[in-house]
């Protein structure tokens, strides 16, 4: 059986919090590294795990909101100019919905030579989620549109018979149920309490319904805004009574 490991680099939100970084997750499979989201602070936590930036084979994004993508700029800049990262020819995939690929193009256009990978032996391959299924890093990656921005995408990453599903930012709908269906581990957002639920995000009631419909084996909750009052936290406690549900924490690793 291949190794298949998830490390939480940031389980936070747009709120800048010293204990919860903006979204960032490392997926290691078959000796390869995939960085899923790179919100602010992700790169510091990544290098703390001992992984160099040039050891990331694939970057993968759910949508273009800054809390999910803002470390893309320092990552590309570092890959171009950090002398410690320029020794070997490298290939890197960037998988994302059209707005994320557009952001990459806009950054290249704006910064030109100070960012362009040309000349430092880095080849970037852009992969669109419109392909619906791609393979990268020994993984089959299914891209499923979710309810958040018009092109927001959730993912199912599979290797052999193991599947890890990630909601991204998303509201509950039929696609999210399909995404989570019978997976070994679901990393699911739960932004707001029931009474303050916003369109395009999950609340504990929605998470409960998703678990009943999709029956994932294990669930990790992430992207929880810090401003829940004590009554609202009881809604989370109720969901956490289930053995299969737990809270994501920065720097935790688990085998899928
Ligand atoms: Zn977000
Ligand atoms: Zn968002």
Identify the strand order in the major beta sheet: 6-5-4-3-2-1-14
The amount of helix comes to 25-40%
Bound molecules: zinc ion
Q: How would you classify the helix and strand content by structural class?
A: alpha/beta
Query: What is the terminal-to-terminal distance?
Result: 11 Å
The whole-number mean of residue pLDDT values reads 94
> What gross morphology would you assign?
globular
Largest sheet: 7 strands, mixed
Q: Give the domain tally.
A: 1
Poorly predicted runs of 5 or more residues = none
In CATH terms, what is the architecture?
A: 4-Layer Sandwich
Structural description of this entry:
The chain has 256 residues and is an alpha/beta fold. It has one domain (4-255): Ribonuclease Z/Hydroxyacylglutathione hydrolase-like (Metallo-beta-lactamase, Chain A). It contains 7 helices and 14 strands. The protein has helices at residues 42-48, 66-69, 72-81, 98-111, 174-180, 204-214, 230-240, and strands at residues 4-10, 24-29, 32-38, 56-60, 90-96, 122-128, 133-136, 139-145, 153-159, 162-166, 185-189, 219-222, 245-247, 253-255. The chain has a 7-stranded mixed β-sheet. The protein has a 7-stranded mixed β-sheet with strand order 7-8-9-10-11-12-13. A hairpin with a 2-residue loop joins strand 2 (24-29) and strand 3. Helix 5 crosses helix 6. It is globular and about 55 Å long. Bound molecules: zinc ion (2 copies). Residues 13, 23, 65, 67-68, 169, 223 line the site of one zinc ion.
């Amino acid at each position: 059986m291949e190794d298949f490991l998830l490390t939480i680099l940031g389980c936070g939100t747009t709120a800048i919090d010293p204990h919860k970084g903006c979204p960032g997750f490392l997926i290691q499979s078959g000796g390869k590294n995939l960085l899923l989201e790179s919100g602010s602070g992700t790169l510091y936590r990544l290098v703390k795990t001992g992984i160099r930036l040039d050891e990331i084979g694939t970057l993968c994004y759910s949508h273009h909101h800054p809390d999910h993508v803002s470390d893309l700029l320092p990552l590309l800049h570092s890959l171009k100019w950090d002398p410690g990262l320029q020794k070997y020819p490298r290939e890197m995939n960037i998988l994302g919905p059209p707005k994320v690929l557009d952001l990459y193009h806009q950054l290249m256009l704006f910064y030109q030579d100070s960012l362009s990978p040309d000349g430092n032996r880095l080849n970037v391959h852009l992969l669109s989620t419109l392909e619906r299924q791609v393979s990268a890093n020994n993984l089959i990656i299914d891209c499923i549109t979710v309810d958040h921005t018009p092109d927001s995408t959730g993912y199912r990453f599979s290797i052999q018979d193991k599947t890890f599903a990630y909601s991204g930012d998303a509201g509950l709908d039929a696609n999210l149920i399909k995404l989570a269906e019978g997976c070994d581990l679901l990393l699911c957002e739960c932004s707001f309490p029931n009474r303050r639920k916003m369109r395009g995000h999950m609340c504990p009631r929605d998470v409960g319904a998703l678990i009943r419909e999709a029956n994932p084996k294990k669930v990790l909750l992430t992207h929880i805004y810090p401003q829940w009052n004590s009554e609202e936290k009881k809604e989370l406690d109720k969901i956490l009574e289930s053995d299969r549900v737990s809270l994501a924490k920065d720097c935790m690793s688990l085998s899928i």
